[in-house]
Amino acid sequence: MKITPEQVIHVANLARLRVDPQAVEKLARQMATILDYVDTLGQVDTQQVPPTFHAIGLTNAFRDDTPQAHLPRERSLANAPAQEEGGFVVPKVI
Q1: pLDDT value at position 84?
Q2: Integer Cα distance of 28 and 38 in angstroms
Q3: Which helix (H) or strand (E) holds 10?
Q4: What is the mean pLDDT of residues 1-15?
């Protein structure tokens, strides 16, 4: 697909990009190459390919959510730099 320098400048203006005038020709060639590749992908027959979300099968890597005993308060506060009345002391956030 042929991309003109005017089209490159127009797209750059729409995207609020400043383009070096000496780079316009190179950008036009690069954009044409990209659009040609996308056109090639559009010609691939995908009728027998089921829709997927991922190219590979994914499984959940997390453990089952089963109730367990909680951590004792003394142990959870053991490494706290500051504690007060059985809780963590943190800086005031407004």
Answers
A1: 92
A2: 15
A3: helix 5-14
A4: 93
